[in-house]
């Protein structure tokens, strides 16, 4: 393996990884051409994703092998439960999403698949497994959001979804997460590393399916 563990995982997850980072859904966010109907279905489903994602952050917090790691993970939990959650609430108000659809919508199969993977990692994943799925979710979002134009779309539904994933604190969190998986990955045997690769590839595929579900 040359380079870092995370770079190895990413490079072996092409072409899906690049398809996520350059997805037409993200281009439509950047130029403000995203129809409200698509943004609405995406956000309703993503709130279901974020629910299980928050539980997975809890698993990472519990399984971390050092106090500084727990502090870094706790910081991210704070963002998900404050700024990100209030964005969802304001977006749902704007899009007139009724209460039932905010809490118990019918879930798309792409949403179900991702939730099942995260729930499975929560129950039986090692710290490295949990980190792998977190890295795919956060790094891929950081990468597409970094492609945003300087002039953001006027509509807050679009601009804030970009800036939530394109700001100094989020970039630092993603940098930490990748460095943490690099650190832990270096201690794994070949079989465990191969397992992380399978998880990375699967989660990347699920990210692509998730965007596709609200695009094609
Ligand atoms: C589907 C999906 N992947 C990643 C993120 C970022 O955590 C998100 N909000 N939704």
UniProtKB/TrEMBL annotation:
The active site is at 207 (proton donor). InterPro entries: Haem_Oase-like_multi-hlx, TenA_E, Thiaminase-2/PQQC, Thiamine_Salvage_TenA. It catalyses: 4-amino-5-aminomethyl-2-methylpyrimidine + H2O = 4-amino-5-hydroxymethyl-2-methylpyrimidine + NH4(+); thiamine + H2O = 5-(2-hydroxyethyl)-4-methylthiazole + 4-amino-5-hydroxymethyl-2-methylpyrimidine + H(+). GO terms for molecular function: thiaminase activity. Pathway: Cofactor biosynthesis; thiamine diphosphate biosynthesis. It is an enzyme of class 3 (hydrolase). GO terms for biological process: thiamine biosynthetic process; thiamine diphosphate biosynthetic process. One of its GO terms (cellular component) is cytosol. Its EC number is 3.5.99.2. Residues 13-214 form the Thiaminase-2/PQQC domain. It comes from the Bacteria. Gene3D superfamilies: Heme oxygenase-like. Substrate binds at residues 46, 84, 138. Keywords: Hydrolase, Thiamine biosynthesis. Pfam families: TENA_THI-4 (PF03070). PANTHER family: BIFUNCTIONAL TH2 PROTEIN, SI:CH1073-67J19.1-RELATED. Belongs to the TenA family. Catalyzes an amino-pyrimidine hydrolysis reaction at the C5' of the pyrimidine moiety of thiamine compounds, a reaction that is part of a thiamine salvage pathway. Thus, catalyzes the conversion of 4-amino-5-aminomethyl-2-methylpyrimidine to 4-amino-5-hydroxymethyl-2-methylpyrimidine (HMP). This is Aminopyrimidine aminohydrolase.
